[in-house]
What we know:
With 158 residues, this protein is of the alpha+beta class.
Amino acid sequence: MGYFTRVFCSTNHKPKISGILTHLKSDGINLSVNLTESELDAENWTDFELTYDNARLPLLVELNRKGESEQLAEEELEEFFEIIGKPKFYELNKKKVIKHLKATEYIVCIQLPTNDIVDKGYDVNGELMEYLELNFNGMVQADKEGFYLRDELLFELK
């Protein structure tokens, strides 16, 4: 069973896998992916496996862009709009989350293999989410937790 985290990005500019790896490796993390060298700079990537420990299952990283990906991004956004519901006048953080979701261009979804992950895997996921949040105008969402902006819980999912 997997645990999912997501980064809802509102920029049109998509990250390159090579850029993700360069950033993560700059923190001293030894990583590998299931792609060839030429695929690392591909503009239209949709998914890859991120291995942080050869003895563990990889993190599965998927990018779903609005208007592509068989409408997965739109379906996921609609599900979150339903879960969040309509904000009341004073629910400013809820309004902030909804505004960001409406501006979302693509979602980077990371599946963590909870039955085969160690602290280093959670750390890699955290670094990846922070990189996407800061460089691609993202907002982080974690299953059974909520929506975060710069480590601040904006809206709790119950």
